[in-house]
């Protein structure tokens, strides 16, 4: 019983660890794209400085002395413009709580999908919102495995957001010269990778053509969007974070 109590205590301490450096984050967290919470300190030219908020466990959390420090978070798959930096500084408030989904390490920073609460139950991706407003451009996340499902899912969502801004002429896409240069980007980056997966490319283009969508496909698309919003709700994010840490503690 005494040994079991010591092991349980050790796991609880591990679950309440506060990360202040990308090197401290377990590889399993990044591999499984775990979502963590953080408190915004400031928006810089290099990215967002977030203070990680660990899981709170009564007694243990109050007993432990947490280190001071922030994590440098970059918006994965997004090349921010100057207007994008200004929008982030205006939209995000100091000490605002954000969720960040771990995708990869980039030297001393983390490439993440950033999520901000909208209402009580739903969240919005800042990566996609920046692109929908024409405040940035999509870039390939080279640190991710090109054959992984998460790689194609994330890039598909980012591309959809960017194309929406192009159609509406938002932000940097107001000028026709920017729109023409966008097609050149396809030749240099996206098209090279898309050529390796013709079925995915055809499926994505079909999904984005409203003339080919039947009622069933539109209904299916709406259901998938609802499922995504539900899975990204604040409650579900907290549950997933807790389960990921429990799983890691058992190891």
From TrEMBL:
Regarding the membrane, this protein is recorded as:
Single-pass membrane protein
The record's subcellular location field reads: Membrane
UniProt key word Coiled coil: no
> Which of UniProt's keywords are assigned here?
Acetylation, Membrane, Transmembrane, Transmembrane helix
Q: What is its main location?
A: membrane
Q: Which Gene Ontology cellular component terms are annotated?
A: extracellular space; membrane
What is the name of this protein?
A: Uncharacterized protein
Organism field: Vombatus ursinus (Common wombat)
């Amino acid at each position: 019983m005494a040994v079991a109590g010591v092991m349980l205590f050790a796991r609880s301490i591990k679950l309440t660890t506060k990360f202040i450096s990308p090197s401290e984050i377990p590889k399993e967290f990044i591999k499984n794209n775990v979502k963590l919470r953080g408190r915004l300190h400031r928006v810089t030219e290099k990215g967002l400085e977030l203070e990680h908020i660990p899981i709170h466990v009564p007694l243990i959390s109050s007993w432990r002395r947490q280190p001071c420090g922030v994590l440098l978070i970059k918006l994965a798959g997004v090349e921010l413009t100057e207007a994008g930096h200004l929008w982030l500084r205006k939209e995000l408030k100091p000490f605002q709580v954000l969720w960040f989904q771990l995708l990869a390490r980039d030297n001393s920073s983390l490439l993440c999908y950033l999520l901000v609460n909208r209402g009580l139950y739903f969240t919005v991706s800042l990566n996609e919102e920046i692109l929908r407003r024409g405040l940035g451009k999509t870039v390939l996340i080279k640190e991710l495995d090109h054959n992984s499902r998460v790689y194609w899912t994330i890039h598909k969502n980012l591309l959809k957001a960017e194309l929406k801004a192009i159609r509406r002429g938002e932000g940097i896409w107001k000028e026709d010269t920017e729109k023409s240069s966008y097609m050149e980007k396809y030749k240099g980056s996206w098209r090279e990778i898309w050529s390796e997966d013709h079925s995915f490319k055809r499926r994505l283009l079909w999904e984005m053509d409203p003339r080919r969508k039947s009622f069933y496909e539109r209904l299916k698309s709406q259901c998938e969007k609802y499922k995504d919003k539900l899975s990204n709700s604040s409650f579900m994010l907290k549950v997933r974070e807790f389960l990921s840490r429990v799983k890691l503690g058992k190891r």
